[in-house]
Amino acid sequence: MAPASVLAVDPAAPPAPDPDLLLTASVLLAEAATTCRRAGHELTAAATSRRFAADLALRPLAALRTAWSAGRALTNGDGLGFAACGGAVGEAARYMGVATLRRPAATAMAVDAFLARIQAAIPEHPNLATPEVTRIVEAFAAARPVEALLALKAIFQHMGVTRALTSLSPISIELCALAGLMDVNPFNDGYAWVTLLGGYPTSDPFLGIPAAALKALNPGPGRAAPVPPDRILAKVLAAAGADISGLVDVISALGNHGLVHLRRVAAADGQDRYLLLLPGTGFGKLSNSTPQDLIGAFDAMCDIDTTYTRSVRKVLEFARVPAGAELMIVGHSLGGMTAMNLACDPDFVGTWRLTHVVTVGSPIDNKRPADPFTTVVSLVNEHDVIPTLDGRGPTSPADIPSTWRELAWNDETYDYPLSHAPQSYSDALRSATAGHHRETVNSLIGAYAGTVVLDQPYLVRDR
Amino acid sequence: MRIEDTGLSALLAAGRLPGVRAATRVPGLGLLGQQALTEQFVALLGLARAGRPARMSTLFGTFLLPATGADLRGLLDAAIAAEALGDADEVDAAGRRHRLPECAPLPEVPREFADLIMIGAEDVAVGVRGEITLQWPAAARRLARHLVLNASDDTLLDRLAVEAESARADERREQRRAALDRRILLHLDAVKPDCFAGLTGATPESPIAVDGLAHLLTAMIVTAETVGPRALALLAADGHTDRAHVEAAVHKAAVLWPEVFAVAQRVARPFEWNDLEIEAGTEILVLSSVLARGGAHQAPVTATALDQPWQLSNLCAAPRRCTTRELALAATTELLVAVLANGVPQLLAPHLNPARPPVRLDPRRVRVELTGPGAGPRLRGLEATAAELDAHCAALLDLASDQCWDHADGIRTRGVLLAHARRCAVAAHDVRRTARPVP
């Protein structure tokens, strides 16, 4: 089978196709690709399964005819292409096909579906219509890894790393999927197939390491101990009320070295409520002694039970937060993912009533809270790369539940990592750019306004 | 230890050997399975003891074991009349014990609740079509939430109920049960009408109401998810779907495939039955096979046996069907009636002969599809895939014909769509040729 055709991204060719029509084309191609893949699976089974062996013994002529027809269908370049897959024999054939660049029609359709998605994203993200980005996309789609790496090097040199990452962030999922489908590694194709129809990845896109294996890299029962706030934190805490920008300030002051914060509020309605603030990832090392590390971030993306969630439980148990107490969690980046992971855990929300989750720059769209009455608010700076890592790009067919509040804006912090910093988020919420979102969030979390009874930072550790 | 004690100990011990259990699942070896051997054992015991209950001393405890259904029901009737029944443990097929929760009584069931069940089932059944066994659990849970608390959207409620029911460790079960109680109390703070809680005036201040509602919610979900698919399998295999057949199928499924292997029912105070003195502290071993089927030496399942309200359950310690379980069966029946009004059920799996029902029927493996009246034969396997490929071809051709592609970039995209449509058509032809039977 020839490599997939390319839906060219040419900035000089007006008028651009209607993005909605391109998305429709993408969805149709994705569905056709999935059916072709299933057809390959079924035909392989028809010619290699135990039932086929039994048929061969009982009705050899019929069985041989089936095998012959299936073999022709599985290698017809005008039809399914080299489409054998599934089962020991099918997977061995597929590996051989990938290694020798003999790809099925399903892959060609999937590639064109992703390309249509990329093209549909251009009107909203004009940075994608540059020759550098076009070169990268075409290199990935045409299975030219060296050319793709050279194109990436060129865009980094031309724009700088931060601006290049920002430019590519709207299509990062599609690029990863294209790379996975068209490379010679047969183990990472699952990532592309999962994201194709708007599902969410359960393995890493590069090597195809499954979530369970990532979990093994992030062991530990989680541990929490109260610590006194330092002077900076104490000062920020004193100024922070039930205002989202103030709470994000506290997250900034907590840093990324293992601190989280628990606040107890005596609300105006006479009820005690609890507020937990969770910072994001520390980038110093791949793995450190706290749950706030890169390995923890990968783990939190694919799983809901992590060292961070276990540590948070320890915090609540240490503080003797009573069962059934109302709780709100505000988290930045990995902290927001952890907040959503806790919201997904029926055991956790059965014990404490998690009324609000407010995430700040977090990739959480692939997670669904166990309690349908949990209010989910996702604050997103659209220049920020990190929130797109959940697999839901601007043109992904997947969407978030209608009850969620996704409050997004474009501010002046164009480049990553500045666009991802909690300080940038709190500044934007105080500015005219996102000030209205601040009002919206504050009205949603109004139940947590009241007298602060307890402010206690905790140091959390993996073990 | 006597030979019969050794025999019962060996039967229970065999349940702990995974190899033995797996081997008896091989077709043709079902007669060597624990259920069948237990029936044989009890039949022999009944003959040896001339129908009198035997005191058995096994590795897993000392029990009084009635060997016939009539004896067992008589003994339990006498115990209930003397108010002598104490608490109970579920005894699983490996002899392990699990504490059964006490039966939480319900207030008097309002007459309007029957109408509510019918209307609720009809609402939930709207749109349940195609392979209905895939949609059944969600529909059943939604109905249960709606009927008990008018909380159709609170999906956490049923997760907590099922977790509380399935937790084996006592501490874990209590934690989950406390979480369920808190969730129910949340709804009782502003109880809605048109549900059991609303009709009975349940309030957060009445713990009996919370216990009863938790029991009702759990019973409705568990019954619908276990009895429902099995009854559906019986109905699809039988081909009749009128109300009378649905009711019979639900009761037959509940009796034929009890969820509990046995229950050790403790005697709290002494009583007498048929000149037999039963002391306090005695444990009556109630084997579900004996209670439901009456033992292998009796007729398998007669109409008389089906009429009996006896049914063991892991939902509560009551040996007879309590009001809660009757309501749960009624809700399952109504949901089946409402769903089956949407079409004709076809049993896809497993193969089932209603005249000779299997010893085990896993409700999760039942696959039933609903087809419209007069629908043609269902396409399966490769033929269905070929039809799907044809449909994709048509959809891609349709999109390619859109005039919006009439410009430079669009023409390229149209070409891509047409090329893939052609591949789908060729693939459909190839797949269909493979599926075609040899003349």
Description of the structure:
Chain A: This is Fungal lipase-type domain-containing protein. Chain A: Residues 303-389 form the Fungal lipase-type domain. Chain A: InterPro entries: AB_hydrolase_fold, Fungal_lipase-type. The complex is a heterodimer of chains A (463) and B (439). Chain A has 463 residues and is α/β, with parallel strands linked by helices. Chain A has 2 domains: 15-209, no CATH class; 215-461, no CATH class. Helix content of chain A is 48%, strand content 13%. Chain A has helices at residues 19-48, 50-58, 60-75, 87-99, 105-121, 131-141, 145-159, 161-168, 172-182, 189-196, 211-216, 231-239, 244-254, 294-302, 307-318, 334-344, 346-351, 422-430, 435-444; strands at residues 223-226, 259-267, 272-278, 326-332, 353-360, 375-381, 405-409, 450-461. Chain A has an 8-stranded mixed β-sheet. Chain B has 439 residues and is α+β, with helices and mostly antiparallel strands. Chain B has 16 helices and 11 strands. Chain B has helices spanning 3-14, 18-23, 34-48, 69-81, 112-125, 132-149, 155-166, 170-188, 196-199, 207-238, 243-256, 288-293, 303-307, 323-340, 381-400, 408-435; strands at residues 54-58, 61-65, 85-91, 97-99, 130-131, 262-267, 271-273, 276-278, 283-287, 344-349, 367-371. In chain B, the strands form 4 sheets. Chain B has a 4-stranded antiparallel β-sheet with strand order 4-3-6-9. Chain B is globular and about 95 Å long. Chain B starts with a helix and ends with a helix. Chains A and B meet through α1, α3, α5 and α17 of A and α7, α8, α15 and α16 of B.
